[in-house]
Amino acid sequence: MSGGYPDGAIDSLPRNQLRALQSERLASIVRWAYDRSEFYTRRFDDYGINPNTIQSVDDVATLPFTVKGDFREHYPLGMLAVPREQLVRVQVSSGTRGTLTVVGYTKRDIATWAEVCARSLALAGTRPGDIVQNAFSYGLFTGGLGLHYGAERLGAAVIPASGGNTLRQVTLLRDLGATVLCCTPSYALIIAEVLEREGVTADELALRVGVLGAEPWSEEIRVEIEERLGIHAIDIYGLSEVIGPGVACECAHARDGLHLMEDHFLAEVINPATGELVPDGDFGELVLTTLSKEAMPVIRYRTGDISAIIDAPCDCGRTHRRIARLRGRLDDMIVLHGVNVYPSEVEATLLEFDEVAPFYQIILDRDSGRETIQVQAEITPQYAGSATASDMAILTNQITRILKSRFDLTMGVRLLKPGELGRMENDKAVRIVDRRTG
Ligand SMILES: [Zn+2]
């Protein structure tokens, strides 16, 4: 088995033992939440749930869901299951409409978080002694601090670069010789762009692995990042309501789905419309239960992320089940004229064209009452240097036609000059601009 996490035995615990551990932890976390969190006392009472009846992982489906709105309604710390004085950290994430979600951690929660991040980094191929340039934003967002403590826990040296200031990122990559880069996939592409502009080639860097996440990204983007940075790009998953990054991560060996840290998180996949469980392998909304979190346990949290459970054993030898790479978020799904479209699917189509750069935006608008969708994508600098206006018109037509045939939807296509969309250095890429209301 690859990977060098010192206590790695947990990753290959036999399935029956792992399941027994999950059942034991589920029973105790449900009891813990009911006894200590006013929110869960009321919620379980409302549903007539006796926490003592929850004895095994099979019983989890009898419990009610927790949703994002619960965090909002009990803002800021109404879901706490420990006295406020036991918190050692608070992280905050902001929603689309400026609403804040506050998550608290005890000392033990912080240790758990560092452990799952260390195990994720090890899965990705990071080893003690590696140099990790962490370009996830530090601060209220969980990406920066989560992977920071994970890398230290693993025994790697961290460069806490945080997001932004890409020119300095490039200088640090070259001069300090980072072997592992952590950031969002869209930021990895911005770094690649600046490297090329500065005339630094991938051979001059020591980079070997990219641990990338916090937004859905297609296989086509992965290929692009790997070629341009000369790395193995690994997908990591997590969300602040559950703990932060480190909930699941691909193994460098198979890169076929993300291993869940099943000793700390219990996963289910449901049909988002009905709430019913879907069979293993079918896509639906990922639902997570924290099995060990003290300060703010969440029971059956509806993540809004679209994935599937992969039950088959992985070639790497680890026993923890995997989730499929995220197809997108329910909130990001565009429903137009009865057709469902995920931005990641549009992205995959665009990147089949060598002339198109991995920078794009989808604009939703209204024209005389009718909803419209337009895809704006930058062309590559190479293509911009040689293409004539008529080449561009032909390319625009080709893309329009293929989008129409794939999605059965007429999308406007507008090709932009390199850099025209601007670059978001500090945050996740903005893929959808919705001008349909207001
Ligand atoms: Zn594996």
Beta-strand residue fraction: 25-35%
User: What's the mean pLDDT score?
Assistant: 94
Can you tell me the CATH superfamily of the largest domain? ANL, N-terminal domain
What would you call the structural class?
Answer: alpha/beta
CATH topology of the largest domain: Rossmann fold
Number of strands: 21
Q: Could you describe the largest sheet, including whether it forms a barrel?
A: 9 strands, mixed
Count every helix, treating DSSP H or I runs of 4 or more residues as helices.
11
Give a topology summary:
Layout: H1 15-36, H2 38-46, H3 68-73, E1 87-94, E2 100-106, H4 107-123, E3 131-134, H5 142-154, E4 157-159, H6 166-176, E5 180-183, H7 185-197, E6 209-213, H8 219-229, E7 232-239, E8 244-250, E9 258-260, E10 265-270, E11 284-290, E12 301-307, E13 309-310, E14 322-323, E15 328-329, E16 334-336, E17 339-341, H9 343-350, E18 356-367, E19 370-379, H10 381-386, H11 389-407, E20 412-416, E21 432-434
Parallel strand pairs: 3-4, 3-5, 5-6, 6-7, 18-21, 19-20
Antiparallel strand pairs: 1-2, 7-8, 8-9, 9-14, 10-11, 11-12, 12-15, 13-14, 16-17, 18-19
Helix pairs in contact: 1-2, 4-5, 6-7, 7-8
Describe the structure concisely for a colleague.
With 438 residues, the chain is an alpha/beta fold. The chain has helices spanning 15-36, 38-46, 68-73, 107-123, 142-154, 166-176, 185-197, 219-229, 343-350, 381-386, 389-407, and strands at residues 87-94, 100-106, 131-134, 157-159, 180-183, 209-213, 232-239, 244-250, 258-260, 265-270, 284-290, 301-307, 309-310, 322-323, 328-329, 334-336, 339-341, 356-367, 370-379, 412-416, 432-434. Helix 1 (15-36) packs across helix 2 (38-46) and helix 6 packs across helix 7.
